[in-house]
Amino acid sequence: MKDKQANRLNSGFQNEIYYFGGTAIAIEAGLLSVEEIKASIDEMVKRVKLAGAASIGLTLYPPYPEGYFANKIMNPEYSYQNGGDWTWFGGRMIQQLIRYGFVQEAYDQVQPMVKRVKNNNGFYEWYSVNNEPRGSGTFRGEAGVLFKAIRMFEEFTEKEK
């Protein structure tokens, strides 16, 4: 297993992976310029389409391949932290888009997140690539980031009046 993992690392596979959650947190920390943020959201939207996923809450794309992790929950089928769709990350990206003036992009990208909360009547921990709820249906992390994003939209609207 370790040799297989080392070969994957040496083959540059990790250079193909785009880390959505990590990018959102880097923006939150102030590490990206406005131009880099624009490039980031464009890349996220592109990769969501490639994955056939619902939102920019993907943890990463493409997922790590079969056999990369010893833990079987981390399979390449967009599972859990290996390509699962987490509003907990996506909502943070929405917040940063609003913060840096990409309000229309934020509004467009939050739509699938709020729709699935309504459609599933709950705040789920994460979602499959097919937008099916997974984990706890009362995940406060999802509720919190969406609440904060909605408040940020409201504050933006008030400033625009």
Instruction: Give me the oligomer status.
Output: single chain
Query: Whole-Å distance between the termini?
Result: 59 Å
Regions with little confidence, pLDDT below 50 for 5+ residues: none
How large a portion of the residues is in β-strands, by DSSP E?
Answer: under 5%
Number of strands: 4
The portion of residues assigned to helices is 55-70%
Instruction: Return the string of H and E elements.
Output: HHEHHEHHEEH
Note the main sheet. Answer: 2 strands, antiparallel
Determine the number of helices (DSSP H or I, runs of at least 4 residues). 7
What's the level 1 CATH class? Mainly Alpha
The dominant shape is globular
Mean of residue pLDDT values:
91
Number of domains: 1
Give a description of the structure.
This protein is mostly helical and 161 residues long. It has a single domain (2-160), classed as Alpha/alpha barrel (Glycosyltransferase), CATH 1.50.10. Helix content is 57%, strand content 5%. The protein is built from 7 helices and 4 strands, in the order ααβααβααββα. It has helices at residues 2-10, 13-16, 20-28, 34-51, 87-99, 103-120, 140-160, and strands at 18-19, 60-61, 126-127, 133-134. The chain has a two-stranded antiparallel sheet with strand order 1-2. It has a two-stranded antiparallel sheet with strand order 3-4. The radius of gyration is 16 Å and the shape is globular. The model has no long low-confidence stretch (mean pLDDT 91).
